Amino acid sequence: DAGVTQSPTHLIKTRGQHVTLRCSPISGHKSVSWYQQVLGQGPQFIFQYYEKEERGRGNFPDRFSARQFPNYSSELNVNALLLGDSALYLCASTQGLGTYNEQFFGPGTRLTVL
Amino acid sequence: AQTVTQSQPEMSVQEAETVTLSCTYDTSENNYYLFWYKQPPSRQMILVIRQEAYKQQNATENRFSVNFQKAAKSFSLKISDSQLGDTAMYFCAFMNNNAGNMLTFGGGTRLMVKP
User: Fold this and answer.
1) Which residues of chain A have pLDDT under 70?
2) Contacts (Cβ under 8 Å, ≥6 apart) of B115
3) Which of A17, A49, A102, B97 is most enclosed, with most CB atoms within 10 A?
4) B103 at A interface, C-beta within 8 A
């Protein structure tokens, strides 16, 4: 079975631009979470979606938004990019919410903002 | 809010030896999980081991085991018979069982296994 996939692998943008990152969860998984991992740090939670609804939001500005589609794939959008948005963006999928569900991570998208 | 602290930015160990990575956390919750994740240079985050807070018995997965001290809010990872493939970043993480599947990560420990 395919794992969590993310696209693109790498991305270079300039300040002020907009970016869209994509994630496809493992087949049968209905929840997707997004994390930002700045170089040399641990990942930080951005959003969680379940059944197309936002179920959790981390401490990130409104420039960050996301959505989940009927096929449970997800997009993370970042507007008005800043240099500090340069990071590895990780997507994780789980079967659902409630009692423990293991999170499976994708390989990430490396975003560089110049 | 939960916090997770890993006080060892870097560690090294000789192949076949044992190493222990430290993690402390702070929470007011009683129902939670703790995890160790491995992130090799390929970037894929892989679950190594998990511990449920209500279980007193320490979790074990092959060469990996934890020392969970709930009162002290300590959660260390012991890697026995270290292998070259264990070289990676290791992250300790916390999940509040009453708040979805959101993970709170520590800052990580870079482990180098030397031949």
Assistant:
1) 1, 98-99
2) B15, B84
3) A49
4) yes
Using only C-alpha atoms, chain A has a radius of gyration, in whole angstroms, of: 13
Which of B48, B55, B101 has the most A C-beta neighbours within 10 Å, making it the best mutation to test the interface with A? B101
* Structure token pair of residue B4: 């997770």
Say which DSSP state A98 is in: S
Q: Which residues of A touch B (CB under 8 A)?
A: 31, 33, 35, 40-45, 48, 50, 55-56, 58, 88, 90, 92, 94, 97, 99-103, 105-108
Q: Is the separation of the CB atoms in B95 and B101 below 8 Å? A: yes
**Cα separation, A84 vs B85, whole angstroms:** 32
pLDDT of residue A101: 78
- How far is B30 from A109, CA to CA, in rounded Å? 35
Span B28-43, average pLDDT = 90
Q: Residue A92 is encoded by which pair of tokens?
A: 């994780």
Minimal CA–CA distance to A109: which of A54, A29, A15, A37?
A: A37
Distance CA B37, CA B91 (A): 5
Partner residue facing A56 (CB), from B6, B43, B102:
B102
CA gap A72, B36 in Å, rounded:
27
Strand partners, A106: none
